[in-house]
Design a protein that fits this description.
By secondary structure, the chain is mainly beta. It has three helices and 25 strands. The protein has a single domain, classed as Beta-galactosidase, Chain A, domain 5, CATH 2.70.98.10. One of its GO terms (biological process) is carbohydrate metabolic process.
């Protein structure tokens, strides 16, 4: 049985449930349309810094923040469009603005659709009219995020988009990675390194970008939790970014449509014609397994 409940916590929180598989999803539309929790068989899949979440002036560290209209940061937080300079903070503004719930479904799945539309605040830093509609679908041990990006402007609209999921982990040395790329760019040193499925977690911060992906699926096996998380993503996502901090019980594996600074460089940018739209999907599957 599928259900959606609404709770008034600090923010209105929508709780999607699949009771047969003991799966739950929590979404807070007014705090950037963010997924804050995802449970499968009673186990937490996501990390959330709950104390930080209570402060509206701080970016959320946890859950699944939405990245739009840029991924990563820009040099001096600026980009130029049609000869005019604009300022955009890291990862854009979608993760900070309130989204509106437009649809709820509890037949065959639990799904919630949230919408973000351009306004005077967004147009001051990103001069386009747009509408984003994201549908979060929960069914069994799978969470799917269907996206529609719409250009309502009379001029072409460039953007990049992505997600920044924070996965909960106790012992990072027990993680094994299946990423469809043989190398990554260290975004701190700008050096390219070969990749064989393992990381050295002794560093204070790890910020690695995997490009030239050879497939539409990645996975992480957490041997301590006996959990395999699979991330499937459409071809619009040619980048995966891995990020973590030493001493923090999370790691991030982020699908991006373009690398950082693409609004300036044009690399991998999605450009929608006036009135055009595009759709994309990202799917997360959690498989809990028994020890052999």
């Amino acid at each position: 049985m599928f259900a959606i409940a609404l709770q008034q916590q600090q923010y209105k929180t929508y709780i999607l449930s699949d009771n047969a598989s003991r799966a739950q999803l929590e979404v807070v539309p007014e705090r950037g349309g963010i997924i804050t929790r995802w449970r499968v068989q009673g186990q937490e899949m996501l990390y959330l810094d709950a104390e930080r979440f209570t402060h509206p002036d701080l970016s959320v560290r946890g859950g699944v923040p939405i990245l739009f209209p840029i991924c990563g940061n820009l040099p001096d937080n600026t980009y130029t469009h049609n000869g005019q300079q604009y300022t955009l903070k890291q990862h854009g503004f979608a993760r900070e603005l309130p989204w509106e719930v437009t649809d709820q479904v509890t037949k065959d799945q639990a799904s919630l659709t949230v919408v973000l539309k351009s306004n005077e605040q967004t147009k001051a830093v990103y001069p386009f009219d747009f509408q984003l509609a994201f549908t979060y679908e929960l069914q069994g041990n799978t969470l799917e995020i269907r996206q529609e990006y719409q250009n309502l402007s009379s001029t072409p609209m460039p953007f990049s988009a992505g997600f920044h999921p924070y996965f909960a982990v106790g012992d990072k040395t027990q993680l094994e990675f299946e990423i469809p790329s043989g190398q990554y760019l260290d975004q701190q040193t700008k050096e390219v390194h070969p990749f064989n499925g393992n990381f050295d977690f002794s560093r204070d911060e790890m910020d690695f970008a995997f490009g030239q992906l050879t497939g539409q699926s990645a996975a992480v096996v957490d041997h301590r939790r006996k959990l395999k998380l699979t991330l499937d993503y459409d071809e619009i996502y040619p980048w995966l970014v891995f990020w973590t901090l030493k001493g923090k019980e999370f790691y991030c594996l982020e699908p991006w449509t373009a690398p950082r600074n693409s609004l300036n460089t044009g690399e991998n940018l999605t450009v929608l014609a006036p009135g055009a739209s595009c759709t994309a999907s990202v799917r997360l599957t959690a498989n809990l397994f028994s020890a052999p």
